[in-house]
Amino acid sequence: MPLNQEDFLIKCNNLTYYFENSIALNNISFSVKKGERLVLLGANGSGKTTLLRILAALYFPHKGELIYKGNIINRKTSKDVLKQLRTEIGILFQNPDTMIFNPTVYDEIAFGLQERDYKNIKDKVYEVAKLCQIEHLLDRSPLKLSGGEKQKVALASILAPNPEVLLLDEPTANLDPGSTGWLIDLLYELDITLIISTHNLSIAPEFASRALVLDTSHNLIFDGSLKELKNEYEILKKANLVHKHKYRNDFHWHDWY
Ligand SMILES: Nc1ncnc2c1ncn2[C@@H]1O[C@H](COP(=O)(O)OP(=O)(O)OP(=O)(O)O)[C@@H](O)[C@H]1O
């Protein structure tokens, strides 16, 4: 890939994406420096998954552009550049079932390494399995695991080729509190650029200090620190991050301390 002359790893300029006739992302612009960590917040259906998939070059924007390491990423981008991006950016889907297809957990982790002609595959599989606390599952069928175990297998498969950027879509949705704590520690120790979508405001500050917020109209309505966001009631309301009940008339959240 060409050397990056500019001060960002990822840049999104006015990204717009449609599914058939309905808009999923509306004119989104932001940039990410190498090593930065961001949480992506927003209501159900606001476009978080779509944005992560665009960043992983699984979808291409209909308007605007994605720039990764100085390369414009779109349908016309060369196969070599796309291959490089897909090697360097790992994405964990919200539903691990869509990522798992090998007969054993070992094969599942080894798959991406084989595709990339990796040396010492066995050592790497054991190393990553240990990191993800799934060594005891290596001979099992990944399809017959619990939701949280599948999530860890999918994460191990993504971490095995040492990605530079990790995109995690609701990674804690299937995890118990202990495993959520383990994931926070694991991510903390990785030297990586991280974008992580979550609805869980209580753990968002454990992942990152910068937040991007999408509203229900698929606009990016906030790009700043989580600390500042906490005081932005109008933004929090637009993103369904606070609510009120019929019996309780003040806007509030349940899990942000
Ligand atoms: N395959 C699809 N076909 C048509 N519309 C889709 C498809 N996938 C997503 N959408 C629509 O695009 C919009 C953005 O969806 P997306 O999955 O990106 O939202 P999200 O913020 O990740 O939601 P959630 O928090 O519920 O996971 C929604 O209106 C959704 O209904």
Report low-confidence residues grouped into runs of 5 or more. Answer: 1-5
Order of helices and strands: EEEHEEHEHHHEHEHEEHHEE
What structural category characterises the helix and strand content? Answer: alpha/beta
CATH 2nd-level architecture: 3-Layer(aba) Sandwich
Per CATH, what is the topology?
Rossmann fold
Strand content: 25-35%
- DSSP helix count? 9
Rough shape? Answer: globular
What is the CATH superfamily label?
A: P-loop containing nucleotide triphosphate hydrolases
**Count of folded domains:** 1
What small molecules accompany the polymer chains?
Answer: adenosine-5'-triphosphate
Largest sheet: 6 strands, mixed
Mean pLDDT: 90
CATH class membership = Alpha Beta
Helix content: 25-40%
